[in-house]
Amino acid sequence: MSLASLIPATRVDPALLPSLLPWSLRYNFLYPYCDLFSHIVPTKPGPPPWNGELEAYYRTFDTQVWYLLGHDHDTDTYALEKLRSRQGELKRRKRKKEHGEGVSLADLEAAIAAIQSHIVVRWSKLLGLHEIRLVFLEPLEKLHHSYDDFYLMRKVLPSMRYERPIARPYSLWPISARVPHYCDRKKRVCLWHDGVNWTKYALPDRPSPDSEAARRRFEPTAAEVLEDADESAESGWAEATMGDATVPLLLSHSNGPRSSGFIPAFTGLLHRRHPQVA
After folding, report:
1. Could you write out the DSSP letters of every residue in 118-159?
2. pLDDT tens profile 120-163
3. Is 129 found in the same domain as 47?
4. What is the pTM assigned to this prediction?
5. Rg (CA), the chain
6. Is position 214 within any domain?
7. pLDDT tens digit string along 204-216?
8. Which of 35, 127, 194, 201 has the fewest Cβ atoms nearer than 10 Å?
9. Would residue 78 count as lying in a domain?
10. 170 within 8 A of 62, measured Cβ to Cβ
11. H-state helical runs in the chain
12. Residue 163 domain-assigned?
């Protein structure tokens, strides 16, 4: 059995999803209510703070998008549970491979990591909006089970002022699966359409000091990674040279003709790397 055969086939490739949920939204409204991200922010009890703006953006997506992404999520979750069970059995028996044509522990662990990545990417890029809406609706539907979710939202969400989404209701199809034949494809903005700027359809990004600090830790930009690496290297160089017995020797000759510009020039080069990288 190959590694690829352990990873379930899904309808939508998570890697192709546009990132429509900005970090500040995920950090403040979504991650606190999903234990997948308890390593980023503590999980909170109770219903999430859903509002009219989130509902308006939620309704810009075709309802079948949520069905397909949710189905893929369930498929991956089921497969993950099965693989973890097999992994646990091998570890319990202290074996590196299953009997006969079974798979190795290394392949099981690689498949588990791949599926976990699919789940997190899918959730963080788009599905999280739907999942948190379900969490918000769950207690309401128990009390008012005869009403649909759109009716409940109209009844419970307070009015608020916000900038309306650019997209028309139910017009966005940001997934790799084909639009069903019963949908009006001419009225859909699809993933494979040329020239679509998906960033304009993303939900609003309202960063705060806390969310930015967390973002820089967990999802830094490429420039920030380089900047942090430079600072780490510079700090490490300074600590190493301060403890190096050769440093006093270099500094003791700093007035000589050969070394007069060496230390200042090298230190200046370290500091100039930031604007050059940016």
Report:
1. HHHHHIIIIIHHHHHHHHHHHHHHHH-TTS-HHHHHHHHSPP
2. 999 999 999 999 999 999 988 888 777 888 889 988 899 999 99
3. yes
4. 0.78
5. 26
6. no
7. 999 999 999 999 9
8. 194
9. yes
10. yes
11. 23-25, 52-58, 63-93, 105-122, 128-143, 149-156, 209-218, 222-242, 246-252, 262-277
12. yes
Q: What is the DSSP letter of 174?
A: -
Are 10 and 112 members of one domain?
A: yes
Taking phi over 0 as left and psi of -120 to 50 as alpha, with beta for the rest, 269 belongs to alpha
> What span, in angstroms and rounded, lies between the C-alpha atoms of 6 and 110?
9
Question: Distance between CA atoms of 174 and 163, rounded to whole angstroms?
Answer: 21
Structure tokens at 177: 């699966």
Are both 224 and 153 inside the same structural domain?
no
Model pLDDT for residues 66-81, shown as the tens digit of each residue: 999 999 999 999 999 9
CB atoms within 10 A of CB 10: 20
Q: How far is CA 175 from CA 32, 155, 196, 199, 266, in A?
A: 25, 31, 13, 15, 51
Which pairs count as long-range contacts for 87-93, CB under 8 Å and 24+ apart, including other chains? 87/112
Which residue among 147, 176, 205 closes a domain?
205
> Around Cβ 58, how many Cβ atoms within 10 Å?
19
> Is residue 212 assigned to a domain?
no
Domain count along the chain: 2
Position with higher pLDDT, 267 vs 55: 55
b/e per residue, 232-255, with b = 16+ CB within 10 A?
Answer: eeeeeeeeeeeeeeeeeeeeeeee
Task: Give residue 233's domain range.
Answer: 220-277
